[in-house]
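User: quick one, fold this
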Amino acid sequence: MEWEQLNGTGRLAVVTCISFPPPALAKQGYGRENPYCTGIVELDENVRIVARIKGVDTQHPDTISIGMPVEIMFHDPECAAETKPVVTFQPR
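Assistant:
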């Protein structure tokens, strides 16, 4: 194994909007009226990663398309209080 730097861009391969969050996301205001989005992103380097998808309309999931170009978010103010890294992507 060896370290390889990735550029953090890719395309959305799988997506789902979730209305029944775990307790930590429920505390952030997610729920039936405010679902959150998660998916699998295929990075440009042909690596797949599961992550939250931000900056999309979760009230209208039909507007979120497979193949949509995305980029990693390194600073997510909503997750600032987390004690571990939270990987999120947003549309490019």
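User: anything notable?
Assistant: The mean pLDDT is 90.
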